[in-house]
Amino acid sequence: MSDSTPADQFFDAAIGLLQRVRDEEAENIGAAGTLLADTVATGGRLFAFGAGHSSLAAQDIVYRAGGLALMNLLTVPGVVGVDVMPATLGSALERVDGLASAVLDTSPLRAGDALIIISLSGRNALPVEMAMSARSLGVRVIGVTSVAYASETRSRHVSGTYLKDHCDIVLDSKIAIGDAELTLDTIPAPFAPASTVVTSAVLQAVMATAASTLAERGIEPPLLRSGNVDGGLDWNSRVFEKYGDRIFYRH
């Protein structure tokens, strides 16, 4: 009989998922990093979008020390995290047809850019429509999702399709349906979600690949430094000045 605690079990589950994603998604992670490097090298801009808790992983790669300065957050009012009141409104907005197109029509996205769309289930109208509309604009789309949802849930988009069906590259987070890793006989619902840990790790692996790919081509990757280390703010100011026309979170 195991003496492991629920904390131990969660760490084991998260580590297992990370190892599985590292092994099974290595090719796709490499392709995604290369796509971002290609976009940077050809003058394109980078964007990330996620709704609800999926937005946490998107925010994790925007304006981040050690991250690519050119990664911008594509925002949809009411769904960026759980800051909208009531929080349940954000979930409802993910199912609204036409919202993604309205946002893209007023966003700076254009042909030649790259967009990362994060949606654990990939079944709601917002991420599906976001991917479809972005690709129709000539934007390359990287989807981060749990492919398992497509086999065991029903799409909430009118097309009956999922995020994974409208991406140039799909990164499968391997998260089980319901996003909860632990169960106990004394607790009626599963608990301890791991999707944020895994999705953030996947995206940081993509960012690392993009930076190293640029360097291999003789292009200095536009990385940010921490503003809390000596010289960091001056470094970032130079990066902002050089790439200001491709950075939208400062405007």
TrEMBL record:
Keywords: Isomerase. InterPro entries: RpiR-like_SIS (IPR035472), SIS_dom (IPR001347), SIS_dom_sf (IPR046348), SIS_GmhA/DiaA_subfam (IPR050099), UPF0309 (IPR022951). The keyword Aminoacyl-tRNA synthetase does not apply. GO terms for biological process: carbohydrate derivative metabolic process. Residues 36-221 form the SIS domain. It holds the Pfam family SIS_2. The keyword GTP-binding does not apply. PROSITE patterns: SIS. GO terms for molecular function: carbohydrate derivative binding; isomerase activity. Belongs to the UPF0309 family. This is UPF0309 protein EJ357_20175. It comes from Streptomyces cyaneochromogenes. The lineage of its organism: Bacteria, Bacillati, Actinomycetota, Actinomycetes, Kitasatosporales.
